[in-house]
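Appendix B, Record 12. Input sequence as logged:
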Amino acid sequence: MSCILNIETSTEICSVAISEDGKCIYSEENREGPSHNESLGRYVDEAMSFADSHAIPLDAVAVSMGPGSYTGLRIGVSMAKGICYAINIPLIAVPTLELMAVPVLLRHDDLPEDALLCPMLDARRMEVYSALYDRSLRVVREIKADVVDANTYKDFLDLHPVYFFGNGSGKCKDVINHQNAHFIENIEPLAKYMFPLAEKRLMNGQTEDVAYFVPFYLKDFVALKPKKLL
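Logged structural output:
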């Protein structure tokens, strides 16, 4: 087994966790908004101090790779790469939407066998970043930026119960009225749920080139003027 430092910054929540032997042994979260540049360094320092004080050597760093907040992803990946460079350990990239499916599977083991999971991240207006997975987290539909209407997921809903969750799903409730559509609340991408995905990737040798890895932004960054200047 292995010890992995997990970093998640793809949304306004900043979270850091350490997993060892398949269990989360340390976790910190900040839900006070997009302040990753202020909190992430302190959280990582505290997590690594915890590992040192318990004589736990880190085997890898796992980071959420996106899609999600452009700034959050950039800060999280930069921090993860810096640690990997400094102590010469592998970098693991975990898709944010796949990460969001982990707490659903942990909390809802009674889902139908043919259920599909559809994590959604808010991408403004009626657009979301979403993907579809089966209960084994096999990709059924790749990650896309969807402008959601009643027919966006109809082909899947006609054949399967589909469970929608994440901070983009709430605005879709009144639009997706299919009888096979189900909505799960309070699902967030957090570092403490990352370790089963990170460990699997590490065991399979799915690590990244620390020098050249970049986050999966999905869409190009568009700078906006502050509201007070408009």
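Residues 221-227 have pLDDT under 50 and may be disordered.
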